[in-house]
Amino acid sequence: MKRDLRGLHLLLVLLAATFAFGKFQGGFVPWFLFYVTLSLTLYAGAVALGALRNVDVTRELSSKRLTAGEDLRVMIRYRIRSHFPLSWLYFREESDVKHPGQGNLIFGLQKAGEVTYSIPRMPRGRHVFEGIRVTSGDLFGFVKKQMTAGGREEVLVYPRVRPIRLWLTTNDRNAGHSFSLNRISENVTSVVGVRDYVPGDRLNRIHWKATARGQGLKVKEFEHRTTNDFLFVLDRREWSYGDKRELFERAVSLIASLIAYAIDRRFSAGLVSCGKKHAVLPLGRSQDHMLRLFEHLATVEPDGKEPLSQTVLREAVYLPAGATLVIVTPLLDDPLVQAVIQLAYRKIKVELFWIADPEDRPKTDGRWLGTLASLGVQTTRITDDNFDEALRGGISDGIPTA
């Protein structure tokens, strides 16, 4: 507990001065000043000794998991268990989130109460509430006492997931992990034909009516659900975004939205994220896996140094057969485009999402789009947060765009 007693020291000096003045001068006024100063000194001394003793302060957060743009509601409860009256209390949150309700001043002699405020539009990231700085003192400002209450709490804010109704992405070379797993999920009510029996076919697939016609054993062909694996690559190079923070937030939000779209449809999704720390999250399709991806995306920053082309070529070596590589970047530089062309020649499906500044027109970056399109590389230009419209085929300058 910290104490600011400079005012009390000043009062003690004034008390000695008024006492000497009363002794030497005498009369009503000198002794009146002495007794006023004495009263103030005793009051300030009592506050210095008794303020903030046996005071309990707790914090309650509306949620410790939010999505970017949501509001966080904070309630601070206090209870004074001592009989010493407090004229005022000041609460100030020690956190990395700046907001108007960070400081709250309460007057009165209530023994218990609460303070509630909201932090609007929480930004993506991991935010720490270190503690609550509680300050009290006398009415005249001679003495202040300060204590820290409340424990350390963290609030994780996930990237904003925007609705995507349709993503026209197919991989005609799909033979990957998702496809092989989904082959056991056949629609047994939808028979699309019959074929000859081959060793290994299950007996419950035998089409007995066709077999009875004397053409040998026949088995049913069911409708298979086709699917895709997606490995997302997020461009985290510092120079890709410059001072345009909003482009990076849009890129993170886009990847989170695409991951949610894929996993909601039982596709598999993985993530490659190269910043100060290199992170590769393998393919998965469960809701828990999606939360792990979102937790990583909640804390990423544009702090990478490695060229994106180098990252893409290295990770493509471990890409499962039939998977699609989805690259999200604001910068279509020559090394990246050459790397994508190389992957296209190797029959690896690649999709590009170009996070473009809406004030810029496609010039240098746009000259590669025709070449990429001829190789089957779909490029979508994103200029705002309406991802659904972009994926449904908005057109600007011949480029799919939002």
From TrEMBL:
InterPro entries tied to this protein: DUF58
PANTHER family referenced in this protein's UniProt entry, alphabetically: DUF58 DOMAIN-CONTAINING PROTEIN, SLR1927 PROTEIN-RELATED
Stored Pfam families: DUF58
Identification of the protein by name: Uncharacterized protein (DUF58 family)
Tree of life domain: Bacteria
Transmembrane segments: 32-55
Sequence ranges assigned to domain DUF58 in this UniProt record: 194-359
UniProt keyword annotations, A-Z: Membrane, Transmembrane, Transmembrane helix
